Amino acid sequence: MPQPIKHDLDANVTTLGGRSLVMHCHFYNCALQKAIEEGMGADARDVLRDSAAEPVRTQMLSLVDGDSSRVPEVASAVFRELGFGALDLSQVSRDGGVATVANSHYAMGWMVVEGAREEPACRFVEGFIAGAVAALGGHEVTSVSVVESGCVACGDETCSFTVEVV
Amino acid sequence: MAVDERSVIEAVSGLGLRGNEEGLIPAFGLYLTRHFSDYYNAASFAYLHAAEKKGPAAVAAARAGLIEAGHVCAFNTFGGIMLSQEWEAVVLPMLESREDWAHGIVAVINALGWGMWKIESLTPGEELQVSLRNSYESEGYLANHTTRNEGGVCFLGTGGVAGVMNLLYHGDIIDRPALTPDFYTKLFGAPERFVAEETECRAHGADACRIVARRAGSAGA
Question: Which CATH number fits the domain that encloses residue B137?
């Protein structure tokens, strides 16, 4: 990790790379996603993805301190440290590629809480990768398309993500 | 014996809750994340604002859905914590009464990065009033939006305060029940359940957020 996670004991505020972090479990993460998906329907995917992308982009820029080539390494380390699973960005460049996640918190959590689903579960992860690639390439997050092409919650062996810069 | 909140906070903060080699944080019988508050806030408030464009029924449904997620959190996270070995080792030795359990779980909550919760009053079996400072929900709202004309935004907090009362005074978490779906339905679906309301919110111009939980159907609930 390029920086330690900081916790202000008096304010109960935790930060990493200038972003506030809060502790939540797979039950809440899945319940919140379910509430938004059921309430917003087809709009939910973009909302969930976009809600992750910009915070991750700005956090990455803060953590790499001007050396954007370090984003893949730092993003994978942060992803693991924060409990989201094991993110492999080795096949992703500033122009796109394919990312994979082993032990995805969202996919595994969804299977435990809700069982299998037809649509991929890792909407937050799509946004996380979009934010990281935006930081890597100096893109706006809206220029990075990330689609989860395989998801453990849908019966696939691993969670995989197709990344394109548009 | 009073709960030494500072020692609880320091103990939980010192547990080293970070991703293992698999990238997971197994603790309290759960898989934890140290998540972006910006993510929760942006997604929740996008849902709320979209509902507000549709009308009162959609707003009520959105609020209910977001608070329900808070109930799920309270049941599993607070419940899991109160059944954990860590609770038994760190917090339980300080607890003599059921009311102490409420103070104990609030002390743990105050190590989760959610802002500072404080029990303002607790009437056993009847009512719990909690104030929240640095609530990540209301502070996150104000970071990106103007002050609201009506309604608080601490949905997780609202569900959480109801959950504390349901775990302690509707169910009996002290008796170590299994946290099953049936038990959840009993705690949050029965007529005698506790429900909570955010009576003041920073996002609505208050100096702090205040949440009160009472029995469903009681005066003020």
Answer: 3.30.1380.20
- Looking at CA atoms only, how far is residue B192 from chain A in angstroms? 23
Q: Look at residue A48 and tell me if it is in a domain.
A: yes
Chain A residues touching B51 at Cβ < 8 A: 39
What's the total number of domains in chain B?
1
Q: What is the DSSP letter of A155?
A: T
Please give the biggest Cα pair distance in chain A: 44
CA distance B20 to B83: 22
Query: Is residue B220 assigned to a domain?
Result: no
Query: In chain A, positions 110-139, which contact chain B (CB-CB < 8 Å)?
Result: 124, 127
In which domain, by residue range, is B44 found? 5-215
Task: Confirm if A124 and A101 have CB atoms less than 8 A apart.
Answer: no
Distance of CA B184 to the CA centre of its chain: 15
What's the rounded Cα separation, in Å, for the pair A119 and B182? 27
Report if residue B106 sits inside a domain.
yes
Give this complex's ipTM.
0.97
Range of the domain at A101: 6-165
Q: Sign of the C-alpha dihedral, residues B31, B34, B39, B40?
A: positive
pTM: 0.96
Judge whether B221 lies within some domain: no
pLDDT of residue B150: 83
Would you give per-residue pLDDT tens digits along chain B (221 residues)?
588 999 998 888 888 899 999 999 999 889 999 999 999 999 999 999 999 999 999 999 999 999 999 999 999 999 999 999 989 999 999 999 999 999 999 999 999 999 999 999 999 999 999 999 999 999 999 999 999 988 899 999 999 999 999 999 999 999 999 999 999 999 999 999 999 999 999 999 999 999 999 999 886 66
Which residues in chain A have Cβ-Cβ distances shorter than 8 Å to B36? 19-21, 52, 55-56, 59
A80·B19 Cβ contact <8 A: yes
The domain that holds A23 is classified in CATH as 3.30.1380.20
